[in-house]
Structure to design on (434 residues):
């Protein structure tokens, strides 16, 4: 199998789930710092003026969730049946809804953010489909180790990563309110490939581009 | 049994699924969502939202997840791994634009000033290299042109895919707001829109009472 090359900024950001998928699948990757000028003007390589971009043999594509789906097929992380694939896709969309809220979070709004998207009493409120409880429901209904079926899928990696980002901001509250999510986070972090990656220099220090988070 | 869509009586986020089912040669049933259920029953409405699709054993939510399910069901997901990638890319690109469109309609109420700013940022061919969050009609137009196999009639490969239905719908929504400007700036997207509207299944659906009149939930658009 070819070795994927990720073109991106030197942060975790929207490339992190892709890196996790590759190492969980037993693969390795290279990273290249994106050329911003090229990203903005070269429509053949960057059809939407954005990165990450993945180059993997004949494959050259953008849109992080499209890349995640490609890697899921490559490493058999997309679910084993039609039903499982549907659930994986639902979870990916649900995590994306929360991620959009996360990237817009401001320090001053942390309390309201927690209340709207994490507090167990607000799941029936207006949240644009973004609430941690919705995601945890899938996990607990499926036994707590994986979100879908009896093996790792890309949905687990999406949930792991969004949990990881929130642990950096809301560690105490998360531990208290969502212990099942903490256990899941530890379980995934210990899986072969992922464990070694997380301890390696390839796991970049910066989660976001503005030194926050 | 025909697939059942549970939703509000608008086109909204259910429209592309209806197009897919119609093009796939099936009929669908429409059930109005019970708002109370939607907010409380997280088994059926896993994210407190709709549309929800029920099709045999499948009972799911999240419009783009439903679109991918229907794409697999009706063979609208590309004929190779590379084509599937390209379909997924375009679904994400349309979603980026749809998010901006929904803000224009629901938050900005289609007022003149935000409407002009929207055109400038997300539609004006001159501004495609500026900051737009990956949301710009020029990106979609370029992908249509780039696909030589499609000859302006398909975004991926030579056959209809879910990407075409998504682009049809987002062009349709923009044509209602920016009719003349859109025609002048993107004749390729207008021609593509006409082509898709004439496809078997879609043509009949668009002319039928099943094509509901309301585009959004607030009478705008």
């Amino acid at each position: 199998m070819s070795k994927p090359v990720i073109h991106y900024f030197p942060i975790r950001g929207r490339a992190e789930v892709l890196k996790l998928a590759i190492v969980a699948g037993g693969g390795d990757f290279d990273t290249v710092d994106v050329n911003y000028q090229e990203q903005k003007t070269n429509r053949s390589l960057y059809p939407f003026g954005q990165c990450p971009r993945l180059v993997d043999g004949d494959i050259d594509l953008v849109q992080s969730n499209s890349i995640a789906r490609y890697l899921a097929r490559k490493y058999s992380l997309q679910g084993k049946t039609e039903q499982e694939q549907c659930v994986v896709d639902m979870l990916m969309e649900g995590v994306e809804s929360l991620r959009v809220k996360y990237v817009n979070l401001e320090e001053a709004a942390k309390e309201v953010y927690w209340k709207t998207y994490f507090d167990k009493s607000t799941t029936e409120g207006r949240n644009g489909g973004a609430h941690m409880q919705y995601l945890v429901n899938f996990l607990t209904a499926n036994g707590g180790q994986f979100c879908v079926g009896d093996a790792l899928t890309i949905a687990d990696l999406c949930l792991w990563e969004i949990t990881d980002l929130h642990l950096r901001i809301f560690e105490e509250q998360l531990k208290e309110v969502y212990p099942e999510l903490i256990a899941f986070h530890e379980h995934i972090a210990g899986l072969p490939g992922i464990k070694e990656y997380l301890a390696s220099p390839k796991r970049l220090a910066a989660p976001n581009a503005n030194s926050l988070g | 049994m025909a697939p059942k869509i549970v939703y509000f009586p608008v086109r909204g986020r259910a429209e592309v699924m209806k197009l897919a089912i119609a093009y796939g040669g099936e009929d669908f049933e429409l059930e109005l969502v019970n708002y109370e259920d939607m907010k409380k029953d997280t088994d059926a409405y896993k994210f407190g939202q709709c549309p929800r699709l029920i099709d045999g054993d499948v009972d799911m939510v999240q419009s783009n997840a439903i679109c991918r399910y229907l794409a697999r069901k009706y063979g609208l997901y590309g004929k190779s791994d590379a084509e599937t990638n390209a379909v997924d890319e375009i679904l994400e690109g349309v979603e980026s634009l749809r998010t901006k469109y929904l803000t224009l309609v629901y938050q900005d109420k289609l007022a003149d000033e935000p409407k002009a700013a929207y055109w400038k940022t997300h539609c004006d061919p001159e501004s495609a290299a500026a900051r737009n969050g990956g949301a710009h009609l020029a990106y979609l137009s370029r992908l249509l042109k780039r696909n030589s196999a499609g000859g302006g009639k398909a975004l991926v490969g030579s056959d209809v895919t879910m990407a075409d239905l998504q682009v049809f719908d987002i062009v349709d929504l923009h044509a209602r707001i920016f009719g003349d400007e859109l025609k002048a700036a993107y004749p390729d997207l207008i021609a593509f829109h006409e082509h898709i509207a004439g496809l078997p299944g879609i043509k009949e659906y668009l002319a039928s009472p099943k094509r509901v009149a309301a585009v959004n939930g607030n009478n705008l658009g």
Chain B touches chain A through 37 residues (CB under 8 Å). The mean pLDDT of chain B is 97. The domain at 81-197 of chain B is CATH 1.20.1050.10 (Glutathione S-transferase Yfyf (Class Pi); Chain A, domain 2).
